[in-house]
Specification:
This protein is α/β, with parallel strands linked by helices and about 650 residues long. The protein contains 16 helices and 26 strands.
Length: about 650
């Protein structure tokens, strides 16, 4: 019998086409065990372990948990990967240090730090959607590994607004950093509270609500801060003035200057001017929308355009929205009340935040205007329905995604539906958003998007707004933050247009260090922290450039080949046929030919190597076979799959 037929080729095996009698149920997946060997302990040994003293078992569990990179609580990963220690240049006495940790050359993942002596203040703790090379990752986090040895110096984390790019990483960062105090405004702290409660760690965190009108206050003996109101897509946003004994800094956070905000007070221009009069040594300002000239569209204009779309539409309306856009949801509910529609809420985050907005007085609406999406929606005419759902980025598994693909238990997209994507695609989500738009159009639904209609807005300040803020603050030095390099370079040009000197503008990367001396002179250190991309992958945290991601990339591009050799334990001689398994390597019409080639080459590689080096170590033999097959397949079929040789000694 030919080696090829010892195993049905896995590249053409599809269990979906097998008869039911041949389909075996998958075994139940066991919960993660503290010790992986415990899964294989014989019954007798397991019984003995169960009668160990509780104290001994508790110590073992604690020891294992402290060394595990998995979340033992089953909810939140907080063990950051071990990295090579990095020793920061000494901070001179009486100087203030600023380090950009996240948000540079990317959109999201905002985080920076300010240090004076042994007092560290962090601001931001967000996430970023995974880039295309972060295969399998949920999102990426700021790399705080360098902070872990000095986490006892961290006095507080200050959060500027409740967007995911500012709070999304806190459930991972706070445990790793020893649960420092967290400061923010009323809504921001409420959103953080929800975020941490869902993660099961709320009781461990000290949250502090700050009123921006209360003025300056101390977070540590030598570090004071003062909030000022800013407008952003998430209400109750602020910027921050930071004062140390030798330096005065301003960090704007995400902002725009909206003269007619939908559900909050306007940016506090008077306070910005007062802060500027204090003499600011360094301004760190949002650069995300620097490429756009003029002013960003106001919320009032957006609300009017959104209402026009809703008022003119016949039939059911489905609006996909980010759950943190409480002001936008308020506009939709207000428009629904004016047009005789009821808003049905789909998605946990949307329901929680609508309730939170009502509790805090940000959403003023009739209680009967919103309802939980249930099958009772069918009792209402479609002309009276608005469905507010998750999925504005086309995320797989979101409410809109399931509706579009017919997997939602209540709502399926049908001809005549009007879909509004109230969003701007974020970095890494362009493909998923394009895919969902294609599916919606194929369903004969009417689709409104940011590009097709002006029903959405850029969430950040445009060029003229940036100029206004620069003129109000009048900083001696300027560091554009938040955004790709080209965005920050555009912001630099805007700053130079209002007479800030080129030599006083600093384009920092993640890991860049700026020190401010006693005279307010800013020095950019030549040393730069190496901050690898950190990703959340299931219940663990890893490095985006690790062997795990590289292996996934290789398998995605060219598949995987497993070759199993059965060999005599004493002589090493092969016994019987080789067993070959492949995934994603070859197409149907080339299976037999390619598999025969691989088996022939693998056998020859094994036997020739053993003949030349009879006493070769098994691990070295496997290396030689792998390299030989890699070269062979690259030459023969121009593919470079992952190759896994395995030797079973009998």
């Amino acid at each position: 019998m030919n080696d090829f037929f010892t195993e049905l080729d896995s590249d053409i095996l599809d269990t979906r086409n097998l008869p039911n009698t041949l389909k075996k149920p998958l075994p139940e997946v066991k919960k993660y065990l503290p010790n992986i060997e415990e899964a294989f302990v014989p019954v007798q040994k397991k019984a003995e372990s169960e009668i160990e003293p509780k104290a001994v078992r508790k110590r073992e569990e604690t020891r294992e948990e402290s060394h595990s990179h998995f979340s033992m609580s089953g909810t939140v990963a907080n063990i950051f990967p071990e990295t090579k220690p990095q020793f920061l240049p000494p901070l001179q006495s009486g100087q203030t240090r600023v380090i950009a940790i996240g948000g540079q050359n990317e959109i999201g993942k905002n985080m920076s730090m300010c240090q004076y002596g042994d007092e560290i203040l962090l601001f931001g703790g967000g996430i970023q959607s995974p880039e295309s090379n972060m295969l399998g990752a949920k999102y990426s986090l700021p790399n705080i590994s360098f902070l872990l040895p000095m986490k006892q110096k961290i006095r507080a984390i200050v959060i500027m607004n409740g967007s995911e790019s500012n709070i999304g990483g806190l459930k991972h960062l706070l445990p790793a950093l020893g649960y420092p105090k967290v400061y923010g405004t009323k809504l921001t702290i409420a959103l953080i509270g929800q975020h941490l409660e869902n993660a099961g760690i709320l009781q461990k965190v000290s949250l502090h609500t700050v009123n921006p009108d209360d003025g300056i206050f101390s977070v540590s003996p030598n570090v004071k801060i003062d909030f000022f109101r800013q407008n952003y897509s998430v209400p109750d946003a602020v910027g921050m003035y930071i004062e140390t004994p030798n330096a005065k800094l301003v960090y704007t956070g995400d902002f725009r200057l909206d003269p007619i905000p939908s559900s909050e007070k306007k940016s506090d221009m008077a306070k910005l001017e007062q802060i500027g009069a204090r003499g600011i040594d360094l301004l760190m300002s949002d650069s995300t929308n620097s490429m756009k000239e003029g002013f960003t569209k106001t919320e009032a204009e957006i609300g009017a355009e959104l209402h026009e779309v809703i008022a003119k539409t016949e039939g059911r309306i489905i609006i996909a929205i980010c759950s943190s856009l409480i002001g936008r949801m308020g506009q939709i509910i207000e428009s629904a009340e004016k047009t005789g529609r009821t808003v049905f809420l789909n998605g946990r985050g949307i329901m929680e935040n609508v309730n939170l907005g009502q509790e805090l007085g940000l959403l003023r609406c009739n209680p009967n205007s919103t309802k939980l999406l249930t099958s009772k929606i069918d009792s209402l005419p479609e002309n009276n329905q608005i469905i507010l759902t998750t999925g504005s980025q086309g995320e797989e598994g979101s409410g809109l995604y399931r509706m579009a693909h017919g997997d939602h238990p209540i709502v399926k997209i049908q001809p005549g539906d009007t879909i509004i994507l109230s969003s701007t695609s974020t970095s890494g989500n362009e493909r998923s958003l394009a895919d969902i738009m294609n599916v919606l159009i194929q369903s004969d639904a009417t689709l409104f998007t940011k590009d097709g209609m002006t029903i959405d807005k850029d969430k950040h300040a445009s060029g003229e707004e940036q100029k206004i803020l620069l003129n109000l603050i009048r900083p001696r030095n300027f560091m554009p933050v938040h955004g790709e390099l080209f965005m920050r370079v555009a912001h630099k040009k805007t700053a130079m247009a209002v007479n800030i000197l080129d030599k006083n503008i600093f384009l920092a990367n993640n890991g860049s260090i700026l020190d401010i001396d006693q005279k307010g002179v800013v020095l950019k250190q030549s040393f730069k922290l190496l901050l690898d991309e950190i990703i959340v992958d299931g219940y663990s945290i890893g490095v985006a450039t690790s062997h795990v991601i590289e292996a996934r990339a290789q398998m995605m591009k060219a598949g995987v080949v497993t070759v199993v050799f059965k060999a005599d334990e004493k002589t090493g001689m092969l016994l019987g046929h080789l067993k070959l398994e492949t995934r994603g390597l070859v197409y149907l019409d080339e299976v037999r030919e390619v598999h025969k080639m691989i088996i022939k080459r693998a056998r020859a590689s094994y036997e020739d190597t053993l003949k030349d080096i009879p006493d070769i170590e098994e691990k070295d033999l496997i290396k030689i076979i792998r390299r030989d097959l890699e070269t062979f397949l690259l030459h023969k079929i121009e593919r470079n799959p992952m190759i896994i040789p395995m030797i079973i000694s009998i």
